[in-house]
Amino acid sequence: MELTLTLEDASTRGALFGAGDCNLKLIRAALGVQISARDSLIKVVGSSSAVNKAAQVIRRLQNSIRQGRPVTKELVSNAIAVCAAAEAQGLDSMETIEVYAHENLVIPKTDGQRRYVEAMASHDLTFCLGPAGTGKTYLAVAVAVSLLKRGALKRIILVRPAVEAGEKLGYLPGDMQAKVNPYLRPIFDAMHDMMSFEQLKRFMQNDVVEVVPLAFMRGRTLNNAAVILDEAQNTTVQQMLMFLTRLGHHSKMIVTGDDSQVDLESGRSGLVDAEYRLSSIKGIAIVRLYETDIVRHKLVQKIVSAYDKNSSPADSRSWARKPPYSRTRPEGVDPNEPSADDVSDRPDNREPGP
Hints:
This protein is an alpha/beta fold and 354 residues long. The protein has helices at 13-17, 22-31, 48-66, 73-88, 111-122, 136-150, 176-180, 185-194, 197-205, 237-244, 270-278, 298-310, 318-321, and strands at 2-6, 34-38, 41-45, 125-129, 155-160, 209-213, 225-229, 252-257, 284-288, 343-344. The chain starts with a strand and ends in a 10-residue tail after the last strand.
């Protein structure tokens, strides 16, 4: 296969190629393709899979240059690894996640969402924190469904703490499935977009898709599965530890939550605690989405911003809404520029929660 790419800006040629074309040589050696460049054109020749990966790498590097980040050897190697992992796990393009419903391809719509999808592709354990409407749950379900369809995993396990948002509903009728269904409705809504009702029903009957209350996770080891913990801000520290230690071989675990909406009476969120404790562990991705990543109705972004602006310790739980975890970027910072919190593998100077 032969593919010709055109540089977005010919003046970035030197930054993209590197000294003595070292970046192109690195791509060539890693992917087994032939790369030649002339003026603003790059010709890539090789197998279909290798050429597509090389094109993805080059596009990612151009995006880094556009955001003002230098193209280093480490950045090139990371781009190659992410694109290879994405292809191996059924995410052939960072722009598209293939699900069972062919008419409903899932496409990340912001740079933050793309970083989130890339983190899930290249890590076995991913945390995603951010305000409502940023696609935390939807994209997690899409990646899990894509992996299931590809055969990379054998089942999907959906977990959510049964904590009510500010009002007591009392005892719910029915068996365990019926009792937990109201809490998992957002996840089911996402799955209905990605497969037919009959298919989802059949998967649930055969335990391919399993719904589990967080309290029933103790003692299990989850192999060959995509495990999604939603609304994780409402887990206690002990519950979060119990959940994370369920991770088995050949599995992916995705933990999502909004640390500004903690409904625990005790006040100490296991999600906030885990972000602090685990940020230095290599192999764990911690992604933070922002107001600029909200993709619901345009008013949602304004509503979130208004509540952030007007919240105060007098009328809110300041330990859940205020620093050390800022949910908005400082003024003057490009909203498309990744911050230290976007995908974190390293410790910082934040204090743990109370």
